[in-house]
Design brief:
By secondary structure, this protein is an alpha/beta fold. The protein has 10 helices and 9 strands. Helix 5 crosses helix 10. It binds N-carbamoyl-L-aspartate. N-carbamoyl-L-aspartate binds next to helix 2 and helix 6.
Length: 308
């Protein structure tokens, strides 16, 4: 397996062996991620962050990962303060950054933008979310969370919320198809998983179940993966209003759930998980957001070739 200089664009590009190696590497790096150990694995490396959309966890956990490994962060900062505001296009921005940094971490509202950037860039590109398309680094940390807190191979998972526009769940489903997962999709019909993804999963031998009843779906699963309705991606605000309150997970709803059930969420949450749930043993979304640090450490060290 060769990771050096690899672009990280879509989970479709990763085999199970590659994913397992990334998760194993993250596990070894966890004591550095939580500050117990120190490391200079990324000494002398400059990693650039280009975020054209808002972000808290993805951007900050990348920054934490880089800093804990002794690397340097080069950030575009706010788009309004860069030459983007003067009308510079993404292609030119990429060509400029490749002269400054050793890798580009890109978040952009346009689907396919990370792929396009990787095709023109001489340094590796990591997709930190391309519109409603993919979000592979989130998926690696989601898989890591399942492996660590529940189980990954053969995991039974219910995925709820905005399956239409949610890039995290698009990436997640492709990855879960490599782990014999039993997947149930729960959403109102307006927010169903795109047909093309369901078809791809079928071709990979995974038959997903679809329902609009959350009560039914949580009866028999290991993991409930909740997502936010992606307000910013709705072409029609009235359509968002119609579906925005369609689902809320409450402690009451979980009363008879499997005691081992883990609730995950890529965050930010709006109102799809009641804060009451935070105090139940099911909640694992804040630990999940921490796991973004060892995962992003693993990805950066592997593609920089400083870890094998
Ligand atoms: C997600 C995203 O940006 O797609 N957030 C994240 O990276 N943790 C989920 C979301 O915005 O709902």
């Amino acid at each position: 397996m060769r990771f050096k200089d690899l672009d990280i664009i879509s989970m479709k590009d990763f085999s199970r062996d590659m994913i397992d190696h990334i998760l194993d590497t993250a596990e070894k790096l966890e004591p550095i991620a939580n500050g117990e150990d120190k490391s200079g694995i990324l000494n002398g490396k400059i990693l650039s962050l280009l975020f054209f959309e808002p972000s808290t966890r993805t951007r900050m956990s990348f920054e934490t990962a880089i800093k804990r490994l002794g690397g340097d962060v080069l950030s575009l900062g706010a788009v309004d303060a860069s030459s983007i505001i003067k009308g510079e296009n993404l292609t030119d921005t990429i060509h400029v950054i490749e002269g400054y940094a050793d890798a580009i971490i890109l978040r952009h509202p346009k689907e396919g933008s990370a792929k396009m950037a990787s095709e023109i860039s001489s340094i590796p590109v990591i997709n930190a979310g391309d519109g409603a398309g993919h979000h592979p680094t989130q998926t690696f940390l989601d898989l890591y969370t399942m492996r660590r807190e529940s189980r990954l191979d053969g995991v039974k998972v219910a995925i709820t919320g905005d399956l239409k526009y949610g890039r995290t769940v698009h990436s997640l489903c492709y990855a879960l198809s490599l782990y014999n997962a039993d997947i149930t999709l729960v959403s109102p019909k307006e927010l169903r998983m795109p047909r093309e993804i369901i078809r791809d999963l079928k071709n990979r031998g995974i038959e997903v179940k679809q329902t609009d009843s959350i009560e039914e779906a949580i009866q028999n699963v290991d993991v409930l993966y909740v997502t936010r309705i992606q307000k910013e991606r709705f072409p029609d605000p009235a359509e968002y209003q119609r579906v925005s309150t369609s689902l809320q997970i409450t402690a009451e709803l979980l009363k008879n759930a499997n005691p081992e059930l883990k609730i995950m969420h890529p965050l930010p949450r709006v109102n799809e998980i009641d804060p009451d749930v935070d105090f139940t043993p099911h909640a694992c979304y804040f630990r999940q957001s921490f796991y973004g640090v060892p995962i992003r450490m693993a990805l950066l060290s592997l593609i920089m070739g400083t870890v094998e």
